């Protein structure tokens, strides 16, 4: 499997997207159905008078295919991804990537380093922590955590990088954002911690998830 434990770090920090073949290879998807066959699948699913997952899977299976990985698929670099993106901090991840490219020139690794270097240092820091925390939490806890993060990002009290990114990409379109803080080493643990705390403002309420007592125990446990 592609980075069984570290695909989240790679995709989350670089913004890379996985296609259908990669999703299957990673175990993030069970079937791949071409867009041209989706309407037929929808019709068949509508006719099925059952919620049995085995039956549903059989119906989907009739329309699914096994796509081939592209020649430059990230799945084929899973050894490097595991080795580098398993590091403890963003700084360590970058250092690991740089050590790899020093051993042997590699365009894919170089491009990955450039992507990380161009990104908002604050976004990298909070994203890595969120991914690592989410690995040990249920869906409900993840939703609350990410809601708090978004609230702090929108308020811009610690960093205004979200607004700056919008300016550089959507308004002035100069694609030259001026991040503040500008370097990873300028960001303290205390600054990162603020993004994961409840917003101390009467006008900003914490996320409250509705009770779902009608769900099976196995589903409630995941919340």
Structure, described:
Keywords: Hydrolase. Hydrolyzes 3-hydroxyisobutyryl-CoA (HIBYL-CoA), a saline catabolite. Has high activity toward isobutyryl-CoA. Could be an isobutyryl-CoA dehydrogenase that functions in valine catabolism. This is 3-hydroxyisobutyryl-CoA hydrolase. It comes from Cannabis sativa (Hemp). The chain has 223 residues and is an all-alpha fold. The chain has helices at 7-14, 20-26, 38-47, 53-63, 78-85, 90-103, 107-118, 121-134, 139-155, 161-171, 189-194, 217-222. The chain is globular, with a radius of gyration of 21 Å.
Provide a short characterization of the protein structure.
Its EC number is 3.1.2.4. By secondary structure, the chain is mainly alpha-helical. It contains twelve helices and no strands.
Large-scale geometry: globular
Element pattern in H and E: HHHHHHHHHHHH
Portion of residues within helices: 55-70%
Mean pLDDT, rounded to whole units? 90
Rg for CA atoms: 21 Å
Biggest beta sheet summary: none
Beta-strand share of residues = under 5%
Going by helix content, strand content and strand pairing, the class is: mainly alpha
Give the N-terminus to C-terminus distance in angstroms: 26 Å
């Amino acid at each position: 499997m592609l980075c069984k434990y570290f695909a989240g770090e790679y995709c989350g920090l670089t913004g890379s997207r996985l296609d259908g073949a990669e999703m299957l290879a990673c175990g993030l998807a069970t079937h791949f159905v071409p867009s041209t066959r989706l309407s037929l699948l929808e019709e068949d699913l509508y006719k099925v008078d059952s919620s049995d997952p085995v039956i549903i899977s059989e119906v989907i299976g009739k329309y699914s295919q096994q796509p081939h990985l592209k020649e430059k698929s990230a799945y084929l670099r899973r050894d490097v991804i595991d080795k580098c993106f398993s590091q403890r901090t963003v700084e360590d991840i970058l250092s690991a990537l740089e050590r790899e490219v020093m051993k042997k020139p590699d365009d894919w690794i170089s491009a990955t380093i450039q992507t990380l270097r161009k990104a908002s240092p604050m976004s990298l820091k909070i994203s890595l922590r969120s991914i690592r925390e989410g690995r040990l939490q249920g869906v409900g806890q993840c939703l609350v955590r990410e809601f708090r993060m978004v609230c702090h990002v929108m308020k811009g009290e610690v960093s205004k990088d979200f607004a700056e990114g919008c300016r550089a990409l959507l308004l002035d379109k100069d694609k030259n954002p001026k991040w503040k803080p500008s370097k990873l080493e300028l960001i303290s643990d205390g600054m990162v911690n603020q993004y994961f705390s409840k917003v101390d403002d009467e006008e900003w309420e914490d996320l409250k998830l509705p009770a779902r007592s009608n769900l099976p125990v196995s589903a409630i446990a995941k919340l």
